Amino acid sequence: MLAPLPARSIVDTHTHTFFSDGVGTFEENASAAVAAGCRVMVSTDHLTLPHVMNPSGDVQVVEGDLARHRAEFEAAAAAHPELEYLYGFECDWYDGCEENIRRWSAGAQVRLGSVHWIGSQEEGAWIDDPSDQRIWQELGPDEVWRRYQRAWLAACQCDLFDIMAHPDLAQRFVNAGFAPTIDLAPLWDEMVACAHDCGKRVELSTAGWRKGVGDYYPAEGLLERFFRAGVPITVGSDGHYPQDICDGIARAYDHAARIGYRTVDVPRADGSWEQMPIA
Fold it and tell me: Considering the domain boundaries, does residue 1 fall inside one?
């Protein structure tokens, strides 16, 4: 059993490398984490996807790279014994993904569940691609939100995920002309009930501030609902560049504490989970 972490230790449970849609290597990310005073970091590159969803392979760890991906992670982790570096994946939800996730993420210590893709594998679209916003233009933000929420509920019910990442990613273009006009409260309430009933953790992500959202993921009103329902949280940067690793983590602790949270959940290298005090 590992010794408990000191209160408010810097922990980043969501990071990416060049193997998926990030820029840094495992070594560069680990060095950045150590420089930021990080005690525990999870590498969570986007897991392998069906070819039809990402033919170029630019946002995923393609199947042929999985062995090298694990080897380079292990080398970086061994080079930084001062950092508890965990191997994980961000697993995109889509219809029929379960067996793919089991096969491609074998050996992962942490699995983030996330929804970026709406619709069937053949005819769906990414909701957070700034270079292609056709789904927002064709469906409108209200319908994108409805479809996102339905997919999120399905993902939340999947027992493969330890954490639900950036739970309201449909905020992504809220300040770019695609703000919903419907009341999101009923959709949020269903998401909160699902997380509670399924025993899920949700991520408090600092990435919204870097993406122009003007809030965390989840938005303050949704985070308040998760708190009232007793849903535990993790904290992650979703850093895609070494300089973004651990970005805003301490401020996120303060934000969560103002909402009422007194602990955040932290995965440990021995497979346990710890409730670390933040207030």
Answer: no
Question: By C-alpha distance, which of 245, 263, 244, 243 is closest to 253?
Answer: 263
Residue 189's domain comprises 10-277
Inside any domain, residue 204: yes
Closest CA to 266 of 195, 219, 203, 194: 203
Q: What angle do CA 37, 224, 44 make, to 5 degrees?
A: 40
Asked if the structure places residue 168 within a domain, the reply is yes
3-state secondary structure of 133: coil
Please give the structure tokens belonging to residue 44. Answer: 């969570």
CATH number of the domain within which 34 lies: 3.20.20.140
Whether residue 3 contacts residue 274, with contact meaning beta carbons closer than 8 Å, is answered with no
126's enclosing H/E stretch is strand 125-126
On the question of a cis peptide bond just before residue 50, with omega within 30 degrees of 0, the verdict is: no
Q: What is the pLDDT of residues 203-243, one digit of tens each?
A: 999 999 999 999 999 999 999 999 999 999 999 999 999 99
Would you say residue 54 lies in a domain? yes
Count of the separate structural domains present in the chain: 1
Model confidence pLDDT, tens digit, residues 127-144: 999 999 999 999 999 999
Cα distance between residue 242 and residue 257, in whole Å: 27
Give the C-alpha distances (Å, rounded to integers) separating 19 from 30, 46, 103. Answer: 15, 8, 18
β-strands 273-277, 263-267 pairing: antiparallel
Residue in the block written with tokens 């999985």: 66
Dist CA 266 CA 206 (whole Å): 16
Peptide bond into 218 cis (omega under 30): yes
| Alpha-carbon dihedral angle through residues 141, 147, 148, 154, given to the nearest 10 degrees | 170
